[in-house]
Amino acid sequence: MTIAAFLTVALLHLMVAISPGPAVLMSARTGVTEGLRTGAFLATGIGVGGVVWAAAALFGLNLVFQAAPAVLWTLKIVGGLYLIYLAWGLWRGAGAPLDMTARATPRSPLSAFRLGLVTQLANPKPAVLFSAIFIGTVPQGTPAWVYAALLLVVFLNETLWNTFVARIFSFNRSRAAYISLKSAIDRSFGTLLALLGLKIAVT
What we know:
Blueprint: H1 3-18, H2 22-58, H3 61-67, H4 69-92, H5 109-121, H6 125-137, H7 144-170, H8 172-180, H9 182-202
């Protein structure tokens, strides 16, 4: 695998990580409500989830999807329903005032990590996307260290970008705007998350 091909994969994945999706939405809201530290643990979970899908793609999960489409459909439906469940939670709590002690007592690092991991794994489409990227750029016989380097790039892209998102939304100005518009923002987040869940489940 050439350096140019490796950099192409890294750039393509970075564009995917930056594009708005369930992980980015969850990072933004966590940054606002629980601060950078919790957002960073969430982002780490998202990064690990990205590595899981990338590794699955590298080792042929897309072939399984092609041979047994029902597996992909099942994963998409389950993942979509999970995101809709999260969206319902946002809608249901949209009218409640923000708990001002949330940053003083945020969720545990493990809980934040787990939320990020499950949110990322709820969307199986990255496995298909990774397969499309890897098929044209990662030749057979590629050394194991190159695979490891690719997975490290995936982890760093996902983790650093989502930590950055959490940081931007953790600023006091962002928090003040959120407090003043909490109901509308939560419902907007919930709607977007539900739409993403439906899109994952039906496409």
